[in-house]
Every structure is written in structure tokens, then in C-alpha cells.
Amino acid sequence: MENYKKDGLKQLRDGEKLSFGEEIALILKLSFPAILAQISSTIMQYIDASMVGRLGPTASASIGLVSSSTWLIGGIISAAGMGFTIRVAHKIGAKEDQIARNIVKWGLLCSFLFSLIVTVISVILSFYLPELMGGEEAIRKNASLYFLIYSLTIPVQELLIVSQGMLQSSGNIRLPSMLNVIMCGLDVLFNYLLIPRLEVAGAALGTTIAKIIITGIMLYYLLVKSESLSLFGRKDNYNMNFRRFIKMEIPKAMQIAIPIAADSAIMGFAYVAFTKIVSPFGTASIAANSFAITAESLCYMPGYGIGVAASTVVGQCIGAKRNELGKRLGWIAVVLGILIMGSSGFLMYIFAPQMIGILTPDREIRELGVKILRIEAFAEPLYGASIVSAGVFRGAGETFMSSVLNLVSVWVVRIPLAILLGSRFGLVGAWIAMCTELCVRGTLFLIRLALWNRKHF
To answer: What is the pLDDT of residues 418-430, one digit of tens each?
Structure first.
């Protein structure tokens, strides 16, 4: 049975009234497994970084040098499937399950074909990227190898992202969350076996093998076991051929996906630019920057989990023509995101030495990492506001303005300020710029959400 049969989404689809307590419970029930999935994914990165950190600053810096590029690619391939997953949520909310299944079938194919194109480009780029990023000669070889292995697994990552998103759009958030936790355990196992033998390449391969296994299971549940979306064992009256799919659904999906892809590119290139700003500060700064980002993600991943819940409920509200309920649930999700990430930021400030200490024994890296983590802690509440608000907009299929706000915030505030402050205060100055930008971004998203609710609801 799909989760919407159990957690309140069925009431939403059937037009039943929800009390305020039920609305909060619905967001929390959907958020908890999504938060668990996000945190488990972060722990997986944390473990990777910790294991590689024991190999020394050079190994850590080699991964840190290209990590922003992997985030850029991850954001782009995620955006490629986002249009289809949001369309699935709309059709599920409208009780048009047969159309949703057609979107699953052809959406997976289109996403996979797109990922092959990205793979070819990334493989070619892997031989030149470390030098383009300004990395020192000592770390270029391992950085190139790590990025090459990552590039070859892009199709698997795409299928994992899209299948997970489609299951979540149907209301089944619990299963993908459980599978992400299992993937974390597998990653630990394979890294334990491979990193001592293959070092940096072992970290990339361990994560890859774990992703391949979980992707296969995720696809099985989507295509075979899902009550509303499975493609096997059905005799649907409505079957959309590929030509009709391109004509009817691709424009709607692209309307959602293109702004998200642009947003991912905006943010991804900003991360690359930020790493480029940091790289002249030396190996210790590159490693500290990478470790601090990994450590901080433990704090903001709950926001992304709540954002997933917000996309699901708002998307189904839009499909069910219950806009007023979508407005209320959206605001509840945003307030929860602010509160939870504010609390996690407070904990991050207190436990910053322990969070960085797990990742590296190097004293210089640890001292730098603690300083910048404590700076970033002040941005977490408003960062949470921007993350969950973006999830609300995605669920409603309104993604263009999110891209505009991110463009303005990152490229007008973060990057120029990082160049200015970084030149004077090094890595600490660059992170002060990041903290400032995240506060600006959160404020812009809250203003946009208030204006958008007034106009659309």
C-alpha cells in the first residue's frame, strides 16, 4: 500500500477537511523519513570524508577540489527528472494515476538519455578539471581519477534520483528513505574494503557500488511493486505513445525542469567559483572548506527533507484543486524548516570541534574548520527558510522565480563579497561572505513566498 493511504494524503485527495493538528502531523510524517534519508546521505559523505581524511591533507584536498563540480552535475541531472516527478505528484493529486504511470515510463527513458549526454561531457572534462580549478600539482592526478569514476556513474545516479523522486511524489516517502539508510551502510562497508587498497579511487568506487545496488532496488519498487505507479501487471485503458508524450507532457515538464536546471547551474557554478576563490589559499584551506561543507550538511539536510515533504503535499494539493490547503501546508513546512534548522545551527556552533575532529586529525585543518563552521551556524534558520520555500514552489510547478532569487543572491552577494573578504581574511572571510548571502537568500524567499501566496491563493 502506498503511504498516502496511511498518512493523510488520502484525505487530501478525497477532499476531506484537515484540522490544524492533522496538517502539522501530515508535514511531520512526510518530513521525518525524508529527513532520515537526507541525513543518511550526508553521513555517507561524512564517512567518505573521514576515511579519506585519515590518508592525509593531500588526499582530502584532491576530492575537495572537484567536489563542487560533482555538486554542479548532481544538480543538473536532478533537475532533468524533477519536471517529471512534479508532474507525477500533480496527476496523483488529481486521481489520474494512468497518466502518472505514462509519465513514469517515458520520463525515466528521457532522463536516462539525458544522463548519457552529461556522462560523455563529464568524462572528457575529467582530464582537464583539476588544472582548470587551480589545484596544486600534487593533488591533480587523484582529483582527476575521482571525478572520472564519478562521471561514469552519472546514468546510475540519474535513475536513482528520478525513481526516488517519483516514489516520493506518489506519497511513498518511507521506502526511499529506508533504502537511503541501507545505501549508507553499504557505502561504509565498501569504503572499508576499498579505501585502504585504492585510496581516493576506493572512496569513489565504494560509493558507486552502493548506489548501483540501491538503484536496482528502487527501480524494482517503482516499476513492479508501487500500487499507483507500477507498470507491470496492469491493463490500463490509457497508454500514451512516445510521440504523444513529447507533445503533451514534455513542454509541461520542461517548464518546471528548465528553471530548476538553470537554478542548479547557477548554484553549481557558484560553488565552483567559490572553490576557485578558496584554492589559492593552500591545501589546508581546500581541505578545511570541503570538510566544513560536509559537516554543515548534517545541519541543513533536515531542511531538504522538509522541502521534499512540502513539494509532495503542495503538488498533490495543486492537482486536487485544494489551493488554500496547499498554502497552509506550505507555510507550516517553512516554519518547521526555520525552527529545526535554527536548532541544528545552535548545535553546530557548540559541537563544531567534534564535527570537524571526526573528519581529520590535522590540527591546522581542524582549527580552520571550526572557525568557519561557527560562522555558518548563524545562517541556518534563514537558509532553512529558502530551502523549504523552494520546495513549496517546486510542488506548485512555480520554479522560475526561485532561479532568479538564487542568481541575484549568489552572484551579486556571495561571490563578489567572497572575493573581497577572502583577499583580506582568507578562508574565514570567504565563509563570512557565504553566511551573509544565505541570510539574504532566506529573506528574499520569505518575501517571495508571502507575495506569491497572496497572488496565487
So the answer is: 999 999 999 999 9
